[in-house]
Each structure stands twice: as C-alpha cells, then as structure tokens.
Amino acid sequence: MVARSQSVNQANLVYSAISHRVITRERKFHFGIYANMVEATVIKPLTTPLETTSNGNKNAITTFSNRSRRRMMKMVNKKRSRGRGIFVTLTYADEICFNPAFTLRDFSRHLDNFMKRCERQWSNVTILWRKEFETRKSGDNVGKVAPHAHMIIEHVTGDLKTITDDFWQWWHEISTDGDTDSLRRSRVDVKPVQNDKHAMFYVSKYVGKADIQHNLTIQLYLNGHAGDVGRHWGIRGDWNTEPSVIVALTLRQWRQLRRELRKFAKKRNRHYAKLLARMPETVGASLFGLGDGDISTRFLWETDVMRLIEWTCRNY
User: Fold this and answer.
1) Is 286 helix (H, G, I), strand (E, B) or coil?
2) Is the residue at 231 inside a domain?
3) Is the model's pTM score more than 0.85?
4) One digit per residue, pLDDT tens: the chain, 316 residues?
5) How many domains does the chain have?
6) What is the C-alpha separation between 213 and 236, in angstroms, rounded?
7) How far apart are CA 127 and CA 29, in angstroms?
8) Within this chain, do residues 115 and 215 fall inside the same structural domain, yes or no?
C-alpha cells in the first residue's frame, strides 16, 4: 500500500510543482521551465569538500568560446519581464582605437563608464553587453583589428532621438577621456526592439556571433592582449531568470520526454534535433523557443510543455 502511494505521488509530482521549486533526491534529472527555454540537468551527488577543492589557477581570457556563447544564450532565454528595449552598438574612431596608447583595458573601462551612466539615467535598467573584435574592411587601417560593443538595454524611457543624442554625447566624452574639444567622433547606433522575437534574432546574429576562432588575425590580436581582454560579455541590473517550475524526473521519464522534445525541435531546427538524437540519454539538454512565456497572462498548465510533462509523468 505504501509502495503504491509512493508510485502515485511520483507519477503526479507535476501537479504539486507550480510557482515554486520541487526537489527530490530520489530522481535523476531536474527539468526546468523558463521564459523561452526548457532545460534538463543531471542531479549530481553531493561531494565532500576534498573532492571540490580546486587549485584556483585560471588562464587569461582571450576568445569568445562556444561554451561562453551557450551560457549567454541561456541567460537571454531565461530572462523574464522584458520592458521597452533598444539595441546599441558602440564603435571607436580610428584615431582612438589605433592610437598606440590605447589598450583593451581602456575599452573595458569605457564600457563600464557608459553603462554606469545608463544606470544613473534609468534606475531599473537591465543591460546585456558583448565585446566584439573585427578587422577594418576599408580606410587607412584596413585589415587591422578594432574593438566595438553590442548592447541590449531594456526598461528605458524617453524619446528615441533624445536617447540617441545623449548616447552620442556620452560615448564621445567617455571614448576621448573627457577631451570634448576633440574632433575624433566615435559612432553610436541605436535601434528600437520591436518584440521578443526581434530581440532573439539580434542576439543570435550580432551579439552571439562566435566566429573569431576562424579569423587568424583576430586570434593573434587577442592572444597578444591576453591579460587585457577581460570578459567578452556580461549583464547589468536585476535579471529575473528563475524557472516557473522545476520537475524531478526519472531516467525513464526523461528519455521519453527527450523524444517528444526532439519531435518539437525538428519543426524549428533540424540540425539541433539531429544533435539531440546523437547525445547520450544520460546527460541533460536545453531547448530554446519552448517555455512558459508570460505566465502572468497565460495559465501555466495550459502551455504545451506542461501538458507534455504531465503526460510523461502519468504514463512513465
């Protein structure tokens, strides 16, 4: 009787998992539902302090690795409560970034100062920033590597033209280190975010580009400035990335749910569906484009992913 009761509780675990986390140590996977993605992670056993001891040695950051890109894409797809947003690109004038006195530490400092001005202008602003390095395609410095930055700034208020004019002035003052009389004008591009789909397209195409490992010139440039590059991306502000629910699944349940997710992936990204099929069933996975959306206007249990989990837990 006790065993049957436990089986029923496990099969219907999903019913108790709404707007809070459900953690059970008897299961093998945690399946989380976020704003625009789902993710399954393996429940790792507890380790002793001796097993988690690290020597603390870290290599200097150089390239924007594929692993770093995945972490950034997950962060963006987990984010909730998107407000009015803008895309911003900050570019240096050639006279600044090709000056022998200019270093990548200056680049990091300039970005930090620019974002601090944004935070002073809008108290609840959130920022995703990304450094990018490209070779000049024309001009006197063709072939040389120049840094620039992409940003998605959300929860901004005011007229777009006024914001653009302010950004031009801020970036000019910051990039010239206060030399406002300088004729060296850096460039600022500002565009409005139309919707969440538009934001994800921008992140995938521009912010999330990970192609520097294919350019030998950029690789040599970053390796030569290994101690000055710093982080390639980051976030500022209060980011709500909490899952709406976490469900504990057995390996058998995860195996079946994984098959159903692969069917969904085939409709959107056949390449990822094939990649998911080749991955071992004993590891977790994440899938973008399938989440709870805005649960303030959509009942969580009516989402496709929740119906799928309910069916899996009931039948497996």
Assistant:
1) strand
2) yes
3) no
4) 434 334 333 333 333 333 333 433 445 888 888 888 889 888 876 544 444 445 555 566 677 777 888 888 889 888 887 788 999 999 999 889 898 899 999 999 999 999 999 999 999 999 999 998 888 888 888 888 899 999 999 999 999 999 999 999 999 999 987 776 655 678 999 999 887 777 777 777 766 666 555 577 888 888 877 778 888 899 999 988 888 888 888 888 888 888 888 888 887 777 778 888 888 888 888 888 877 765 544 445 456 667 777 777 777 6
5) 2
6) 27
7) 32
8) yes
Q: Which domain does 37 fall in, by range?
A: 2-49+242-315
Strand 145-154 and strand 245-249: the pairing is unpaired
Contact 134, 148 (CB under 8 A): yes
d(CA 249, CA 314): 11
Has residue 206 been placed in a domain?
yes
Residues 228 and 103 in one domain: yes
| DSSP one-letter string for 58-118 | -PPP-S--HHHHHHHHHHHHH-----SEEEEEEE--HHHHTSTT--HHHHHHHHHHHHHHH
Query: In angstroms, how far is the first alpha carbon of the chain from the final one?
Result: 20
Look-up of token digits 């989380």: 32
